[in-house]
Each structure stands twice: as structure tokens, then as C-alpha cells.
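Q: What residues go here?
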């Protein structure tokens, strides 16, 4: 019987995985953690066959947690299970060692297929993501961002306010401001509107986003 560790700060996801686990080939035992410290405690105490990891965790980004897992447990497969559907999230996850990526809008059958594929030593990427990986151009200017910086960039690109980003990512508004400043510095951009235009041009977000009032540069505040 396989042992699956769900890492997601929404407990309902782990409950759903427990129900799905009963439908896997030989069944499975599902454990759960809501953040990285709890996850690493469970990884030290017990043997696991698969980690199902969300990207948007409170505190440390799931993309950074993925790197930590692959550093300390290089042979432990990780399946990313996320609300993010953008191809850059898929690309970064695979680059950093994930064995698969599935978005949370997929069906239960798709999730079962993904879990079984990774548990059997294979990889899983949905058909549309496979097509995008083949045909979409690689990013350039944002590739030096950390996992959390990249998440904040995409949220800004979606036209979200600092308060909304903080709520989405489970971090403080001051922390969002810090990440936003780092993103601008690394990408050599000064205004949120420039970040939004970059995200649209790079295909990180849809062009159909709400109007966002221009914010003055930090130096003008």
C-alpha cells in the first residue's frame, strides 16, 4: 500500500485526496501537512512514496519547498497540485524536479491518473500543458525570480491589489510590498503597470484583466 503526503494549507484538499486514495489501484494511506515545517517533520518520521504539493502555501512558496524536498529527498517524487494553470508554473516546477503537474480544475479521474503515473515511476503533464511546453516560447526576464517573487509577479499581472495578494498567498501586506520591490529591481521595472504589461506580453496572464489604477513609483510616495 502506497503512502501519500498531501501538503496544502486548505484541509479540504487532503480530505478529498483521502477519498480519492481509496480508488487507486492498491489503495493508499494519505497524510497531511499545512506548511513546510510540518511536512519535513512527517518526512523525517515516516516513509512516504509521494508528496502532493500545492504551490500557494502560507509562508514559504511551494516552489521553494519543492527545491528543499529535492535537495534532502532527491528520490522522493513530487506531484504539484495547484490552482495555477499558467505554463511558467509548470515549466519551473518540472525544472526544479517535480515528477508531474496537475491543476485543481481537473477531474477526479485526471488526478487519479496523475497520481498513479507518478507512483509508478513516470511523469504526468496534462495534454494542454504538454502542447504549451512544446510550442510556447521560454521566458527570459523573469527567470531569475524566486518562487514567491514569481507568484507575486503573476498576481500583480492579474491586476490584484497588495491586500488581495496578501490574502491569496497567506502573507502580510508588508511582505507583499517587499517581494514587489524585489521583482521590480530584478526585472529593472519601476511601476506596477509595467509588470502587468510584461505579464500579458509573456503570456503569464490573460490580456482580459480589469483596469488597475497606476501607482506612483516608491520614490514618489
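A:
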Amino acid at each position: 500500500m502506497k503512502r501519500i503526503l498531501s501538503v496544502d494549507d486548505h484541509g479540504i484538499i487532503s480530505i478529498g485526496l483521502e477519498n480519492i486514495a481509496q480508488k487507486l489501484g492498491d489503495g493508499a494511506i494519505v497524510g497531511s501537512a499545512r506548511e513546510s515545517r510540518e511536512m519535513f517533520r512527517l518526512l523525517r518520521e515516516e516513509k512516504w512514496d509521494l508528496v502532493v504539493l500545492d504551490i500557494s502555501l502560507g509562508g514559504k512558496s511551494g516552489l521553494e519547498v519543492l527545491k528543499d524536498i529535492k535537495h534532502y529527498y532527491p528520490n522522493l517524487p513530487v506531484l504539484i497540485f495547484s490552482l495555477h494553470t499558467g505554463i511558467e508554473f509548470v515549466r519551473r516546477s518540472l525544472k526544479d524536479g517535480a515528477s508531474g503537474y496537475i491543476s485543481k480544475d481537473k477531474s477526479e479521474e485526471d488526478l487519479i491518473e496523475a497520481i498513479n503515473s507518478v507512483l509508478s515511476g513516470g511523469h504526468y503533464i496534462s495534454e494542454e500543458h504538454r502542447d504549451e511546453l512544446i510550442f510556447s516560447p521560454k521566458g527570459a526576464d523573469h527567470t531569475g525570480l524566486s518562487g514567491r517573487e514569481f507568484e507575486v509577479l503573476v498576481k500583480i499581472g492579474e491586476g490584484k491589489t497588495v491586500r488581495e495578494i496578501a490574502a491569496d498567498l497567506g502573507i502580510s501586506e508588508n511582505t507583499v510590498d517587499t517581494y514587489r520591490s524585489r521583482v521590480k529591481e530584478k526585472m529593472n521595472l519601476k511601476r506596477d503597470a509595467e509588470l502587468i504589461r510584461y505579464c500579458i506580453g509573456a503570456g503569464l496572464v490573460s490580456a482580459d484583466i480589469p483596469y488597475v489604477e497606476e501607482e506612483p513609483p516608491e520614490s514618489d510616495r
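A: Context that may help when evaluating the design: The two ends are 58 Å apart (CA to CA). The chain has ten helices and six strands.
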